[in-house]
Every structure is written in C-alpha cells, then in structure tokens.
Amino acid sequence: MQESRRMSQTTKxxxxxxxxxxxxxxxxxxxxxxxxxxGSPFEWDSQYAGMAAIARVGDPLPRETIQSIHHNKLALxxxxxTPTGGGYRSVNVQLRKEFELFANVRPALTLIxxxxxxxxDITLIRENLDGFYAAFEHYMPIGDDPHAVAMxxxxxxxxxxxxxxxxxxxxxMQNGRKKVxxxxxxxxxxxxxxxxxxxxxxIAKEYEGxxxxxxxxxxxxAMQLVLDPGRFDVIVTTNLFGDILSDLIAGLIGGLGLxxxxxxxxxxxxxEAVHGSAPDIAGKGIANPLALMLAAAMMLDHVGKxxxxxxLRNAIRITTLEDGIRTPDLGGTAKxxxxxxxxxxxxx
Length: 348
Ligand code: NAI
Ligand code: MG
Fold this sequence. Notes:
It is a single chain. The chain has about 350 residues and is α/β, with parallel strands linked by helices. The protein folds into two domains: about 10-100 and about 260-345, Isopropylmalate Dehydrogenase, CATH 3.40.718; about 115-255, Isopropylmalate Dehydrogenase (3-Layer(aba) Sandwich). Helices cover about 40% and strands about 20% of the residues. The protein has helices spanning about 1-10, 25-40, 50-55, 65-70, 90-100, 160-175, 195-205, 220-225, 240-250, 290-300, 305-320, 335-345, and strands at about 15-20, 40-45, 75, 105-110, 120-125, 130-140, 145-155, 180-185, 210-215, 235, 260-265, 270-275. Strands 2-1-3-12-11-4-5-10-8-9 form a ten-stranded mixed sheet, sandwiched between helices. It has a two-stranded antiparallel ribbon with strand order 6-7. The chain is globular, with a radius of gyration of 21 Å. About 45% of the residues are buried. 1,4-dihydronicotinamide adenine dinucleotide binds near residues 27, 257 and 278. Its EC number is 1.1.1.42. InterPro entries: IsoCit/isopropylmalate_DH_CS, IsoPropMal-DH-like_dom. This is Isocitrate dehydrogenase [NADP]. One of its GO terms (molecular function) is isocitrate dehydrogenase (NAD+) activity.
C-alpha cells in the first residue's frame, strides 16, 4: 500500500550511486548535477565501495552496497582503486560475479574529430565473467623458492559463450548494426578460445542474412584496429582480450576520458567509465567527467529514456566541439567544474 502510494507520487527510477575512489567523487558530482539539469529520472541511493568503504567500514564491498544494487538492479559507479599484487580482490570483478553481469558493453564513437581517425564507431562486447579472469591462480614452490612457478587456469563454458555471443547479435539487431566480428586465439588456445569460436559460428547461422559475421585472431585484429578501424562494427570477444582491445579502441577516439561502459546481466546493470581512479590527478579538479557522463547516457538508454540520452550527448558534443570547453586530457584548460557549468548551460 505504502509502496504503491510512493510509486504513484513519483516516477523516479531508484538507482544505486557509488562515488568511488580517486577522481570518482569529483566526476560523480559533475555527472549528477548535469543529470539534474536534464531532469534526471533517477532517485539516487548513495553507497560506498573500494578504498572509500575500507576507510568507513573496513570492507571494500559492504553488505549494504550489495543489498542496494540487489534492490535497485541499476547502478552508476565511479572508478574503484584495486591494489596491485596483494591486498583485496578487485571489487569490480566481485560486483560482476555477484550480479552475473556477463556482458561488458563498451561503445567507442568519435566525438571530437581531429584525432588519427575521424569516424570511429565500434562497440566492443566483452565476456565479463570467465576466461582468465576466473583466475584459479597459484604458485608452485621449487627448492626454497615458494614462487618458483606461477600458474593460472582459465575456463570458458559453452553456455557462457552462447550467452555473450547471442547478446552481441541481439545488440547488433537492436542498434541497427550490420556486422559482428568475433575475436579469438583459437590457433593457440585451441580449447579455451576454440569453444568461443565454435559457439560464434553456430549462432551466426541464426542471424544469416540479417547480421554479417566474421572472425579474427586477436593479434591481427589489434593491428587492423589501428590501421583501419572503419572495417569494424560490433566486436565480441573473451574477457582478457576484451579488456585489452577496449582500451585500444578508447585510444582511437581520443583516450579514456571519452570511453563509457555498461556491465549488463539479467539481474542488474552497472554503468561506469572504462578508466580507473586516476590517483595521479585526484583532488586537482581537472578530471574529465565525460566518460562517466556517457555511461550515464547509456544508463538512460537502458531504462528507455532515449530522448534524455540524446539531449545529454548533444550537450556534450556542443560544449566540447562548438564551445571548445575541454579538460586538459583532451587538450583544453577547463577545470571539471567549469566544464560541468558549461554543460548545464547548454542543457538548460
Ligand atoms: P587510470 O585509468 O586510473 O589512469 C590512466 C591514466 O589516464 C592516468 O594518467 C590518469 O590520470 C588518466 N585518466 C584516467 N581517467 C581520466 C579522466 N577521467 N580524466 C583525466 N585523466 C584521466 O588507470 P590506472 O592508473 O592504471 O589505475 C588506477 C586505479 O584504478 C587502479 O587501482 C586500478 O585498479 C583502478 N581501475 C579501476 C577501474 C574501475 O573501477 N572500473 C578500471 C581501471 C582501473
Ligand atoms: Mg581494463
């Protein structure tokens, strides 16, 4: 009763907001105020994760944060710092596991021309749960060296391969795309990535005549992306290759400052920037909020608010291109707050 009254009073969509570490709080603040100017449909439930959560409750992924995402099934997340080597396991990986966010969707679209290429428009879809990231890692001792040998066993399942590849084809259908390129290394990792290629060939048959299909070996694909990105449309690949190639593609459109991503599963979706917490510039007020803002645009699309997503992307385009207001990573001199104000005035 109370719930239905609450629903009728507001059309807001509840969503978890994680400010994150390093530059996270600065860019999240910027994105939230630009969304507010746009008439944000989201009702934020702010929660902590990463170092910020360690400092507060001694746990990088507190129960409350998990419960909030379980409840809302939707989140916008600032970057989280992961200690290298020792320390705690990546919270990003834990979140993907907890909510079975099997698809990592990373669109790369040229926003600011004048880079090496003018019209890049590639969406990379990365398998987000398996491969080498399943990480059965261990050391074997020899003599008195406890770390004499390092081993890592990855796996891919037929079900997991089918699920992500089907997702890529459906994404292509829904977004007016023409071609899916499957990227693998089945000539060397014959089982681990051979199963992925096999699944791709099977599923491609179902879409014959609607979506074209091709396969590429990952090293050749990396070279072709750098020489001629125009030949790619939608790319689907395994976890580790997807991690590497999506940063490469971000480089083609001017760097990490413009690369958004969505982690999508049946139970929840978490949107974030591809970049990390940028400790080198944290607190300086010069972080570029646009990657996270473009992730918020993906989140608007995800909940069916495509009109708002389009207005947001247009404001970003006009502010950076026509007004020439950019943060230092994109060759400008604007501070995060100046860019934010400029975006708000273009939305209003
Ligand atoms: P990074 O992406 O944080 O930084 C790489 C370089 O790009 C730095 O020079 C940084 O200043 C610059 N940069 C990144 N985002 C920027 C922005 N919005 N505006 C302006 N410049 C920006 O990668 P790095 O240094 O390897 O990782 C730092 C931390 O972030 C690590 O703890 C890592 O584990 C974590 N990380 C977290 C991710 C996530 O939460 N999804 C993703 C990647 C890394
Ligand atoms: Mg990465």
